[in-house]
Amino acid sequence: MKVKKIIAFQLLSMMLIIGFASCSKKKSSSKNSSRATGWNVDSKKASAKTKQEAGPGLVFVEGGTFTMGKVEDDVMHDWNNTPTQQHVQSFYMDETEVTNAMYLEYLDWTKKVFPPSDDNYKNIYEGASPDTLVWRDRLGYNETMTNNYLRHPSYANYPVVGVNWIQAVEFSKWRTERVNEALLEKNGYLKKNAKTNDVTAESNFNTETYLNSPTLAFGGNADIVLPGKYANKKGGKKAPKAGKDGKVIEPTNIYAQRSSGILLPEYRLPTEAEWEYAAAADVGQREYNIYKGQKKYPWSGSYTRSGKRQSKGDQLANFKQGNGDYGGIAGWSDDGADITNAVKSYPANDFGLYDMAGNVAEWVMDVYRPIVDNEANDFNYFRGNQYTKNKIGKDGKVEIVTKDNIKYDTLSNGRIVARNLPGEIAQVPVDDKETYLRQNFDKSDNTNYRDGDKQSSKYFNFADSENDTKKSKDEKAMYNSPIHNVTTDSLGNMVRKYDKSNKRTTLINDNVRVYKGGSWRDRAYWLDPAQRRYFPQDMATDYIGFRCAMSRVGPKFEKRKSARN
Length: 565
What we know:
The protein is of the alpha+beta class. 20% of the residues lie in helices and 12% in strands. The strands form eight sheets. A four-stranded antiparallel beta sheet has the order 1-4-20-7. The chain has a four-stranded mixed beta sheet with strand order 18-17-10-19. Strands 2-3 form a two-stranded antiparallel sheet.
């Protein structure tokens, strides 16, 4: 009997200890309790998504350090691949190049929302359309591709070409809006199917407009922009509740914000450092915290042909193997293509990315310069930053672009493209309000920082700055590339002014962009991820395409580190 009492007492004591511990644990780990003040905070913020989800089509690329610009060959002898140690933050990248099917979705949406038959928008669709004439050759018959490559279903999963750098950037912006639009609809912040049924030129979605002023999104249509959890099942607003004193309590924070964790960062072109890091995929050569060796190509080994039994002798990428040899002989097409090929036709690299060598070369964000200035920066290197801010109207509110204030640019080849679209927030360069006494940047356009500006010019004389100011702008320039000017007169006719100067010594200027990777037209030399070339940003070819990237927010890794591969 005595033993039973002791056991019962022990059990009761253990239950009390467990109860107090659980209460203490529950109290200390309350999700609504602030670790800073102990106050109860908004439960809506506490339930916000804290982990970024990969956007449609993207795969995760864990960042790290690598040697950028390291090549085994330099047959061009231009020495613009000086090896530098760089660090790239984690990011996401398209699993494949953007395909014709993906780009046609963009064109179909643009044509529906901004009909070319409307004079206000007639240049928007045409400015977004790829140049199908890039396939033509003076001494070659390529009309089949000219007429069919973009739209025929046989080429649907082939990478889009004929797209210049500006068009690639605009596609990335469009993709951002459509993805975030779908996420808001999914979470109850937008009316169901409004993105297809209710969208018009003056009533469409823009992420930054929504974040800055939700009531102005979709042209200010309150039937489309919903108050999240305060919306009723029919898509309208719930009636506000009355408090204990009888006063109506108006809900606050009813729209999605950045702190909600629902919206994704923007789709964009990858930087050159990101693209090269992702293509090299040295992670496959890793052991502990070192790389066992630098790969020449995105795959292991120093050869372009497969050594596997089932595919032995086949090329691991789509490229030109010799004069007049774009794909082997009949009956044994060793790379399976003569022009481009369907995406995923070749093995992925160690990051799970396809066609990081061959098929088509790809645009990246950077403005081209022969030297990567690692002395200025070795973290997320990028040349081409142009900082802007929202334009504030006379009413003190952000200025939304409409059909009346939309702006167009005439490119050097005479093509007209929209600088912004209705529904977006108008942008202006940052000024001294943002730059005054800053150490990290002092102006809006940083393209020429430490290279291309007056101080970098060979004509600049630090000892005699007064005489230097008398020199013309052309003399002070670091790169004196041709300056072609194309405008339109009052009747809409193109006025071309071609630069015929014989004193030009370079093609480099602030409007040439880097493109990376070999293509179906290139020899194996260009398959090395570190090789780099440049091309005018407003021109297109039949061998340059692109893929999108997205910045990673949050932790560097998704999986715990392992010692070996």
